[in-house]
Design goal:
This protein folds into two domains: 138 residues, Lipocalin; 110 residues, 2-Layer Sandwich (TATA-Binding Protein). It has 266 residues and is α+β, with helices and mostly antiparallel strands. The protein is globular. It contains five helices and 17 strands. Helix content is 25%, strand content 38%. Pfam families: YycI (PF09648). One of its GO terms (cellular component) is membrane. This is Regulatory protein YycH-like domain-containing protein.
Amino acid sequence: MDWSKIKTIFIIAFLLLDVYLIYEYVKIKEYQRADDSTTEPPTQTLSRLDIKYDKEKLPVNNQKDQYLSAKSKKFTDDEIKKLEKGLLSGQEIIVRDSIYLQAVLVEPISIKEEFSPDDLTDFLLNSVLNGAEYHFWEKKGNTIKYYQQHSGKTLYRNPKAELTFNVNEENKIVSYNQTYLENIKEMDEEELIIQPLEVILNLFKNNFIESNSYVSFVELGYYTQLDTSAQLLAPTWKVTVNEEDFYVNALDGQVIQPETEEMKVE
């Protein structure tokens, strides 16, 4: 048995353990500093943690909001006929379960290599049902995704308020899939929503972001809390930190994790 090698391995292992413990200790002290500063304005706490943000781009939050209820639209035969004789492009329509509309374009739409949402403005306004209510989300691979808005606020990552265009290898849109929420109604009384800076600080306290982070975008929209025969939508902050998006319930501070749809409580 080579005791020299074993001794070296143990020394390296203990050094790594020491580094890890020091790292954890520093993180704990940071959390304690954040928690101990309950009377300190969030601006000062975030400054001490070196969490940066653009003050001019932060929403001015002195408003109230409330939960919404909504139901999936059932597409009618008259609406389908209208689409099939669209102003900009004829469409072949299939509807599944009354709420999932699939349209194949008779004449595909050419788009630029560097896609701009402006390229589809006319088509949305003239050839998509309620097209003006959808807001561009992302272009990823061979799909261009939009989500429905309510009162100018996006219904985040909502599969029942979604418009997805499909692009072929020739960079032409050949079809799209659509869902739509209607009968959107306010529920309960309005409540004062959480301040954006407090949301950012809560993300740090809950170990979602670290010190030395950069917050590039903050926006208020809605996220689905419950989806049965109707949907329950919660006012939700979308916070982009180091190019990663986080969603936080603007009324109770819960952090929504889209990949698992689980909730992490403060």
